[in-house]
């Protein structure tokens, strides 16, 4: 993902929502994906390799493929919704 540099923080939000949609569409087609922000450490090298112009910023890379089910894999835990979201003026169900 290479948003334009002059779009700033707005582009990061747009790119994140777009990326989420692409990843959901990939799952609907039976594919798996993995966003990789670590690529930003190598943004100059990657930009040169893919021919990105100077006005673009490397946001992240995405691996796409089929999950190999017979190998060990890392699954991270998830925080409870109430730990990460503040509801203003609305009470979540069960509270």
Write a brief structural summary:
The protein is α+β, with helices and mostly antiparallel strands and 95 residues long.
Keywords, please?
95 residues; alpha+beta; two-stranded antiparallel ribbon; 3 helices; 2 strands; extended
Folded structure, characterized:
It contains 3 helices and 2 strands, in the order αβαβα. The chain has a two-stranded antiparallel sheet. The N and C termini lie far apart (39 Å). The radius of gyration is 17 Å and the shape is extended. The chain has 95 residues and is α+β, with helices and mostly antiparallel strands. The mean pLDDT is 83.
Q: How many β-strand runs?
A: 2
Strand order of the largest sheet: 1-2
Mean pLDDT: 83
Helical segment tally? 3
- For the record, give the distance between the C-alpha atoms at the N and C termini, rounded to a whole number: 39 Å
Q: Strand-and-helix sequence, N→C? A: HEHEH
Quaternary status: single chain
* Poorly predicted regions: none
What percentage of the residues does DSSP assign to strands (E)? 5-15%
Rg from C-alpha positions? 17 Å
Estimate the global geometry from the Cα principal axes.
Answer: extended
State the major sheet. Answer: 2 strands, antiparallel
Share of helix, binned: 25-40%
User: What structural class is derived from the secondary structure elements?
Assistant: alpha+beta
């Amino acid at each position: 993902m290479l948003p334009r540099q002059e779009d700033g923080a707005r582009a990061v939000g747009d790119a994140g929502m777009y990326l989420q949609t692409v990843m959901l569409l990939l799952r609907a087609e039976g594919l798996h994906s993995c966003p990789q922000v670590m690529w930003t450490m190598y943004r100059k090298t990657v930009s040169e390799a893919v021919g990105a112009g100077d006005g673009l910023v490397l946001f992240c890379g995405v691996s796409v493929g089929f999950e190999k089910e017979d190998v060990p894999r890392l699954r991270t835990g998830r925080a409870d919704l109430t730990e990460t979201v503040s509801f203003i003026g609305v009470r979540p169900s069960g509270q």
